Structures are given as C-alpha cells and as structure tokens.
Amino acid sequence: MPSHLLTIGSRGSKLALFQANWVKSKLETAHSDIRVVVEIVKTSGDVFLDAPLSQIGGKGLFTKEIEDALLDGRIDLAVHSLKDLPTVLPAGLHLAAVSSREDVRDAFLSNKHRSLGALPNGAKVGTSSLRRQSQLLRLRRDLEVANLRGNLDTRIRKLDEGQYDAILLACAGLDRLGYQQRIVERLSVQQLCPAVGQGALGIETRELDDETQNRLQCLHHAPTHSAVTAERAFLRRLGGGCQVPIAGHAWIEESRLELLGVVASTDGRQLFRGQTSAPIEQAGELGAELAERLLASGASEILQALSAS
C-alpha cells in the first residue's frame, strides 16, 4: 500500500490537468510506495482573460500563485508548461526535472485556408503571443493580427464561430489533447521560432526537498534539459518574458548544441536573428553568448523601446 503522499499543484485548464495527471501517472508507476494527488491553483493568467498577455503582466503570470503554494508547503511539486516559467525562480525553489519534449513548432489552424501562405490579404489571425505576432507580421505584413485569449478549447471554439480566419497555437498542446486533426500546417522553426521552453514540462520543487527531487528523476530528460538551459539563458540575458517578442530554440546535432534566437519589434519591421553552437556542457554560456551578439547587432534598441512603452 502507498505510504507517502505527494501533492501536485496545477492550473485548472484541460491541458494543464492533462499534463499534471501525466506526471502523476509516471510517478505512481515508478514508485509503488507513493500516492499522488493533483490540486488546482488558480493563477492571475487564468483570471484576467480579456486583455492581451503583454498588457496584464510579465514574468510569473501563470506561475506565481502555484509557486506561493509550493513555498507554503500546500503542494510538493508544481507542473508547468516550461515556456510559462520565468527564468529566475523565487528563492527556495528549484527546477527539479524537465520532461522529454513534444513537437516544438507552432500550429496553423483554419477552417477555410490550407496554409499560412494561402491566407488572403487582410485575413484575421488570432494569437495572444507577441512572439508569434511579430514573426507573423514579418512574414505577412498584410495580415490583421487580433488578440486571442482563453484555454485551448475556447480558442478553437472562437475559430469555429468565425471570429478569426485562422489562429496560431502550440503543436505540443494540441498533440497532448488529441487535436492533431485540427492542425492544418505545422510551421517550421525558421518561419516562426518557438517560445523558449516550448513543448517541454518543467517540474518545480522546494530546493531542499531532496526526497521529491530524487523521485522526479524518472521524468527527467537530459537532452531536453540541455536545450532549454541554453534557451532560458538566452532569454534571461535579454531580460524578456511573455510581454517581449523574443524566441529561442535549441537542439542537439552531432553531439553539439545548436541555438537559434530571435528578437523582433511588435510590428515585425525589425527582426534580429542569430544561430550559434557549442558543446552540450556549455549550454548556459551558449545562450548568453547569442543574446550578447543580438544585443550588439541592434536588438537592444527594440528591448529598450518596449520597456519604456
């Protein structure tokens, strides 16, 4: 009989609960002596659903209340979409495990058009992400980009109601919930560079909770961890969050870590892109180095303008 209880903190959306319950299942399978329960924690990002993400908050919009519960001891671990987790964690907390990554790409969904390139001039595309908005307008300045908030089901419903000609979502969430058939086109990372950490789950614990951290090693995927370490170092050096159009994607190629990074203006008129590589063990240095390169090439002016606005 299980003798030890672990409590997972999660947002209440269908996708968040799917992810939390996936972690629960993996833990209970790997450790016969534990029982795992999921506790829903409502975050600020779940409450303020009308305004664009860039207007209602920066770092921690989908994580602060969950991290408070972790620090208070109400939960033992938190399961996050890693792209939502700030690069600097509160004192006393630790990123204990990173899951194997799902498809990192962005998905194009439409009921009328077969691809992003097939959209007519002036088509209305929904997204809540400045990262997607800036790169989309770089590709297609003729499009109208409109705010799209809500959970995954709500966003798809708004598309089906005809509020948008197309919407952009993460492939990973659609794949996890079995909505692959709704994806019309999977956009390459060169078309739309993904969000830092996209496709991976980040599992957060209290820094001194060695027992829980040890139990989580059955979920940890070292190659994904190396990749997101580079991405998060890139974002941390740039000082960005969801309110800044920054994108980063790292992958392992021939025993080296490749990193692609993008900084863009919200209207897509300015875009700085770079790619570099390093040995896998230098993931953090790789991210910081690419950030410095983009800052020196002119990206600093975009970031300064955004922080002043």
Summarize the structure.
This protein has 309 residues and is α/β, with parallel strands linked by helices. 35% of the residues lie in helices and 24% in strands.
Written overview of the protein:
The chain is of the alpha/beta class and 309 residues long. It folds into three domains: 1-99 and 200-220, Periplasmic binding protein-like II (D-Maltodextrin-Binding Protein, domain 2), CATH 3.40.190; 106-187, Periplasmic binding protein-like II (D-Maltodextrin-Binding Protein, domain 2), CATH 3.40.190.10; 221-309, Porphobilinogen deaminase, C-terminal domain (Double Stranded RNA Binding Domain, 2-Layer Sandwich), CATH 3.30.160. 35% of the residues lie in helices and 24% in strands. It contains ten helices and 13 strands. The protein has helices spanning 14-30, 44-47, 53-56, 64-72, 130-139, 152-160, 171-176, 210-215, 222-238, 283-308; strands at 4-10, 34-40, 77-81, 93-98, 106-109, 124-126, 144-146, 166-170, 185-187, 201-206, 246-253, 256-264, 271-279. A five-stranded mixed sheet has the order 2-1-3-10-4, sandwiched between helices. Helix 1 (14-30) links the parallel strand 1 (4-10) and strand 2 (34-40). Helix 9 packs parallel to helix 10. The longest helix is centred in the C-terminal third of the chain and has 26 residues, at 283-308. The radius of gyration is 19 Å and the shape is globular. It starts with a strand and ends with a helix. The mean pLDDT is 92.
